[in-house]
Write a structure and sequence with these properties.
The protein is an alpha+beta fold and 723 residues long. The protein has 21 helices and 24 strands. The protein has 4 domains: 223 residues, 2-Layer Sandwich (Chloramphenicol Acetyltransferase); 189 residues, 2-Layer Sandwich (Chloramphenicol Acetyltransferase); 90 residues, no CATH class; 152 residues, no CATH class.
């Protein structure tokens, strides 16, 4: 079938950001960093997103979907202004810059295709050249290169695709994902909600990228030398996709990962620990399958090189925001003996090589990056040619990109058809597995498919015991915090619980909470006791938040907390007759001065006082104390009009109110209750009033309301007396 019959262009337009950018803080010009310069003339990277809408027709596509995509794209470019601009290399500039000027925009192609939508979104073998018909061309010349181009292609009664072609010197896979998700979010929310969530808002400050060794100058020198002296051309390498390439997708499910993990734990019992994550396990499995499927590699190469990408955003020191706009990734090789990969423990050997490569990132993240410059003009092949290179990342979560018509039916990284890399993305099934995309000649694809199937079959026959791994992670689960920070401790415990779940030994939420509380250091005793008395369960996320807040609070405060302000109430048994308050229909009571023991005058506060919210000693109700208890009112017996002392009910509590100790006062007969007034200390004329007391050794004096001061008192602590 001719190309013109497969894809028909309906419209080519330019979508610009909203014209009112006067208040925009987004820079209109950005210099390239050494992370960007390495990709200056490299082929662009290209992605395709397929969305299924079975009932969609041409009219719906033209009058509903396309206008929404255009409007939301314009609003998105307001946040991603550099993507509407171009890459230039002015004569006065030391290095190329990304520049936006008024009138710039992104080229958008609207097309229609009669290809089989469901064939293109399947996993079996497909012709690679078909996908490139769904991608736009990037406008590039010697003087200027567009940042990005887009194409939306209709598949009548099936769905549509969104194709992205982006200049690799302007953005990497992480930034590309931020853009497409921002576009999807704004499109789904509607034109009236152009704001972005914090996780998608790009960070443009290029000063966070430090270059102490002058890597950008090294790269620029090499690019200027390429093709002649002082060559400032921005033309990218011309790379044509061979017509015989075939694309295929392989599923590596969560069940496969669990079984592979069991094998590794069993075989690695006597060796140093390796870096075991779902991603590293899948990479090791792919490397072994590639080597076993390549007869030529086995014959010619003693060593196998596996290259994987590393996002440097959180590994740089200091770390930079995850939404940093631009390139910020490097490739890290893992070198493994070919014969070890072909052996019985090939997966374990691959994991050891990957673990060593990951560990080397801590010693020197950018070690060897300066040697990349030699690759720009080098015509000699690598001493160890790459056996397999991993592009993209499952952490990008591309299947969460919803424009309002649901999750993508399929994601394809189309640029691997030019580079020969292997694409690893998250699974569209959302089961914690991975999708592995490959493009190669049919013979090589079939050999890899056979090796991949045999590897999965071997996993299905795995019956090794995982008891050693269960014991290992169980010990990590109950290990005390020790010298670890609370955040490190919590992450380690959660990681151990996750690993046990993968080994069919799940840990419940309540058990996980108990393990954490039991292992916390003594500094968390008080807050730990509060969590233990909760009536309801607490999630790990909430527990982590509370413990982290408590840890930060302890770090802010001194090791010795400030002394508590001392307040005291001088108590006597019953007030004289005739001093009951208006609530009882008697004359207004006598209000003696309040006594308090304070080291200095308390500052005046304009805020309303906070009532004491203790537990009532009479009815045990939370929220009031005995003085205001309804039962308390009905158990007083007196006759205020006759002005005679009331008759005491020995079984009822009797309240004592504050009074001065200046001068004699009548002492009523002892009663069985003391009122909890909320004061930190109590003053009484007779020690027999309090069941517990101790000498006060401080230097503070008692000051009363009339300004007089008394000598140092004996400090007493009261306890409730019961009948």
């Amino acid at each position: 079938m001719a190309q013109s019959q497969m894809v028909k262009t309906r419209e080519v337009c330019k979508v610009a950001p909203p014209p009112d950018l006067s208040r925009s803080a987004i820079p209109k010009s950005l210099p390239l960093t050494f992370f960007d310069l390495f990709w200056l003339r490299s082929p662009p990277f290209q992605n395709l997103f397929f969305y299924e809408i079975p009932s969609q027709n041409t009219l719906q596509f033209e009058y509903s979907i396309i206008p929404k995509l255009k409007q939301s794209l314009s609003l998105t470019l307001h946040h991603y202004l550099p993507l509407a601009g171009n890459l230039t290399w002015p004569q006065h500039s030391h290095k190329p810059i990304i520049k936006y000027v008024g009138g710039d925009g992104v080229s958008l192609t609207i097309a229609e295709s009669n290809m089989d939508f469901y064939h293109l979104t399947s996993n079996h073998y497909r012709q690679e050249t078909d996908y490139h018909l769904l991608l736009p061309q990037l406008e590039v010349s010697d003087e200027r290169a567009a940042a990005m181009a887009l194409q939306v292609t209709l598949f009548p009664n099936s769905g549509f695709s969104v194709g992205i072609t982006a200049h690799h010197a302007i953005l990497d896979g992480k930034t590309s994902t931020l853009f497409i998700k921002s576009w999807a979010q704004i499109c789904k929310a509607g034109a009236d909600s152009p704001a972005l969530v914090h996780q998608l808002t790009p960070f443009y400050n290029r000063e966070v990228i430090k270059d102490p060794t002058g890597l950008d100058s090294i790269y620029i020198t090499q690019w200027l030398r390429q093709g002649g002296p002082n060559n400032r051309s921005l033309m990218i390498f011309d790379s044509v996709v061979p017509p015989d390439l075939v694309r295929a997708t392989f599923e590596f499910t969560k069940d496969h990962i669990q079984k592979l993990r069991k094998c590794v734990y069993e075989k690695n019992s006597s060796k140093p620990p390796v870096h075991i994550t779902s991603l590293s396990l899948a990479c090791a499995f792919i490397l072994v399958c590639v080597v076993r499927a390549s007869e030529n590699h086995v014959k010619k190469n003693r060593l196998a090189k596996f290259v994987f990408g590393v996002d440097c955003r959180y590994r740089l020191k200091p770390a930079i925001p995850s939404t940093y706009f631009g390139n910020c990734a490097i490739g890290r090789p893992a070198i493994v003996e070919t014969k070890d990969l072909l052996g019985e423990d090939g997966i374990l050997s691959a994991l050891e090589g990957i673990s060593e490569a990951i560990a080397s990132l801590d010693d020197g993240l950018l070690d060897g990056v300066d040697s990349w410059a030699s690759l720009i003009n080098s015509k000699e092949p690598d001493e160890i040619p790459p056996t397999a290179c991993i592009a993209w990342s499952p952490r990008f979560q591309v299947y969460n990109t919803d424009f309002g018509w649901g999750a993508p039916k399929k994601f394809e990284m189309t640029s691997i058809g030019r580079t020969g890399a292997i694409c690893m993305s998250d699974s569209k099934n959302g089961n914690g597995g991975f999708e592995i995309g490959m493009v190669s000649q049919m013979k090589k694809i079939e050999a890899f498919a056979s090796s991949f199937a045999k590897g999965l079959e071997a996993l299905c026959n795995v019956r090794q015991s995982n008891s050693r791994a269960v014991v290992e992670f169980g010990e990590r689960l109950i290990k005390a915090q020790g010298n670890r920070s609370v955040l490190e401790y919590l992450n380690d415990v959660k990681s151990a619980a996750n690993e046990l779940s993968l080994l069919d030994h799940p840990v419940s939420e309540d058990d996980l909470t108990l393990y954490i509380l039991n292992g916390l250091s003594t500094a968390f005793e008080i807050i730990s006791a509060a969590f233990r008395t909760r009536d309801s369960s607490i999630s790990f996320e909430e527990l982590r938040e509370k413990l982290t807040e408590h840890d930060n609070y302890m770090k802010r405060t001194d090791t010795q907390p400030p002394a508590t302000t001392i307040t005291a109430h001088a108590a006597q048994r019953m007030p004289p007759p005739g001093t009951f308050g208006p609530r009882f229909g008697a004359p207004r009571p006598y209000r003696p001065p309040r006594a308090s023991v304070v080291p200095q005058r308390r500052p005046v506060s304009n805020s309303s006082p906070t009532n004491y919210k203790g537990r009532c000693q009479l009815c045990a109700t939370q929220g009031h104390f005995a003085r205001y208890c309804p039962l308390f009112k009905h158990q007083w017996t007196f006759t205020p009009k006759q002005q005679v002392p009331p008759t005491f009910n020995q079984s009822a509590p009797h309240a004592f109110h504050s009074t001065s100790v200046l001068g004699p006062a009548p002492i009523p007969p002892p009663q069985p209750w003391l009122l909890d007034t909320g004061a930190s200390h109590h003053i009484a004329q007779d020690f027999q009033t309090l069941s517990l007391h101790s000498d006060y050794g401080g230097t503070e004096e008692i000051s009363v309301g009339n300004g007089n001061r008394l000598g140092s008192p004996d400090r007493c602590s009261s306890s409730q007396r019961t009948t």
